[in-house]
Amino acid sequence: MPELPEVEAVARTLRPLVQSRRIRCVHVFHPIATKPQTASHVARHAQGQRILIVDRKGKYLLLILGHGLLTMHFRLDGQLLWFANGKELLKRANQNKSNVHVDVALELDKGVLGFADRRHFGRVHFWESGEDCSGLSVLGIDALSRDFTSGQLAQLLAASKRPLKDFLLDQSYVAGIGNIYSCESLWHARFNPRRRANTLQSQEARRLHKAIVSVLARALECCLHPAPDFRNPEWWFQGLERVLRVYGREGKPCRRCGEPIRRREQGGRSTYYCGRCQK
DNA sequence: CCTGCTACCTGATGGC
DNA sequence: TGCCATCAGGTAGCAG
């Protein structure tokens, strides 16, 4: 569940389920999911605490506890699951037959929250303070926050010589944009992904800002309708293809000018763009 | 400091 | 069918 809109939809859906619940017990089925922290570190510190706030920063989901916080990062494929109680968790999770994979589970005073990622890229960590989490403290302006204005974006762009695509993927400038929505934003704003950030005029920065905000807003709407269904281990975001204009459309005609969409490796990732109308 | 590359993992898909 | 290569929405760590 990768980029900002997906994590935001998860945070909003999760909030009423866990806010002000107490964590009775932490089960770490696959300790790789807490690396480099140990399973017992996470379990010991989280157990017995109340979840005060469910928050999101960039692509991080935060559970603010009475003391310290849990961070969850889904990387490429991580997801949340929900079980009625500990009994149901143990019956269904990680049994050969059931095929329900769970890496970490928080048994609450009502219900069980599971964190699952078969690929084991995703992570659950405990921190005394958010500042201790390097991935969190390095984040720039959150793309959904009020602070993300076109003026702020213009300033950041002016200070970077990197290609726009790389700039947008770097979470320390603007947090939350990933491979899909960077492609989408650049397509909407009609910028070539290789264009250098500091070559944008202020008018152009405004155009990019508008594209990012509208792309993320539309994706968030899509992610919320229907909302994630944590009870169904098969759940995933539906209908994103509907809102995507360029990502994954290699060879298909550009929806603006008809030119075949190209795919190119940039920064080790696939970038989709129109060679004719993105300048 | 900045930038670019690789490793980290598993599963789905498509060509032969 | 089976086997192999390629691809996947992300980031940490390291070398230059």
What's the total number of strands?
12
Q: Work out the strand percent.
A: 15-25%
Helix content: 25-40%
Task: Report the top-level CATH class of the largest domain.
Answer: Alpha Beta
Summed over residues and divided by their number, the pLDDT gives a mean of 96
User: What is the CATH homologous superfamily assignment of the largest domain?
Assistant: MutM-like, N-terminal
Biggest sheet overview: 4 strands, antiparallel
Shape: globular
Write up this protein.
The chain has helices spanning 4-18, 39-46, 86-92, 134-137, 150-158, 164-169, 179-189, 202-224, 240-243, and strands at 23-28, 51-57, 60-65, 69-73, 79-83, 104-108, 112-116, 123-127, 141-142, 174-175, 262-266, 269-273. With 279 residues, it is an alpha+beta fold. The protein folds into two domains: 4-137, Alpha-Beta Barrel (N-terminal domain of MutM-like DNA repair proteins); 141-273, Helicase, Ruva Protein, domain 3 (Orthogonal Bundle). A four-stranded antiparallel β-sheet has the order 1-6-7-5. The chain has a four-stranded antiparallel β-sheet with strand order 2-3-4-8. The structure holds a DNA duplex (16 and 16 nucleotides).
